[in-house]
Design brief:
This protein is an alpha/beta fold. It contains 8 helices and 12 strands. It has helices spanning 14-26, 37-45, 63-74, 88-96, 109-123, 158-168, 177-185, 194-207; strands at residues 6-10, 30-34, 51-55, 79-83, 101-104, 133-135, 138-141, 146-149, 152-154, 175-176, 213-216, 220-223.
Length: 230
């Protein structure tokens, strides 16, 4: 039995599930399998899953709908999506639905195992021991991992919280997209800088208030240390 965590691999291709099982178990993980989104949701209801590797194109319930259901029912459970589609719009759609990472087929089992390790390392990292962080009208508590705007809690995905917290912890510092990918995602993501842009856009939409994040044209983002609205 693995010691690195319990991974659910969801894909209708038996050979791909077998490949991922081999590499993930060799990396110390325990692996469960599902052939479609309906089976995946049934297994998740039983609990004990630490991360889901989820194919986008499946019968009965596709990966995007499954991802949406997971986010609704299981909060910030990490999700890595797999797809044969290479179009940028598909990658962005997956991220907007709440996926933590995205891998395009064909890929190596070793690559997926590395992505799983990076996501879980970020998820289980030591919490910031400092006090609350301010991002415009939003207040972030790194210990409870909550975000509040004028006393009202706003639900953020794990990556959205980590991205805003990283910027808030370093006000006035300009981060390139590549640096944010390294510090927040834990590696150089093959998805590219659009990953960061999508999550910043999601933060602005969800919080619905000034979060102090400023785009630096041709570079990346910084957080201006503005105070909360009166």
């Amino acid at each position: 039995m693995g010691t690195g965590g319990h991974i659910l691999v969801v894909d209708d291709e038996r050979s791909l599930r077998k490949l991922l099982r081999t590499y993930l178990e060799d990396s110390g993980y325990t692996v469960a399998e599902a052939t479609n989104g309906v089976e995946a949701l049934e297994q998740l209801r039983a609990g004990g899953i630490d991360l889901v590797v989820l194919d986008m194109m499946m019968p009965e319930m596709d990966g995007l709908e499954t991802c949406r259901r997971i986010r609704t029912d299981h909060g910030q459970l990490p999700i890595i999506m797999l797809t044969a589609r290479a179009d940028e719009i598909d990658r962005i759609t997956g991220l907007e639905m709440g996926a933590d990472d995205y891998v395009t087929k064909p890929f190596s089992g070793r690559e997926v195992a590395a992505r799983v390790k990076a996501v879980l390392r970020r998820v289980h990292g030591d919490p910031d021991e400092g006090g609350p962080l301010r991002a415009g009208d939003a207040e972030l508590d790194p210990i409870s991992r909550t975000c509040r705007v004028n006393g009202t809690q706003v639900d953020l995905t794990r990556l959205e919280f980590d991205l805003l917290a990283e910027l808030a912890a370093h006000p006035n510092v300009v981060f390139t997209r590549e640096r944010l990918l390294e510090r927040v995602w834990g590696y150089q993501s093959g998805v590219g800088g659009k990953t960061v842009d999508v999550h910043v856009a999601n933060l602005r939409r969800k919080i619905g208030a000034d979060i102090g994040v400023v785009a630096v044209r041709g570079v990346g983002y910084r957080l201006d240390p503005v105070g909360p609205s009166s």
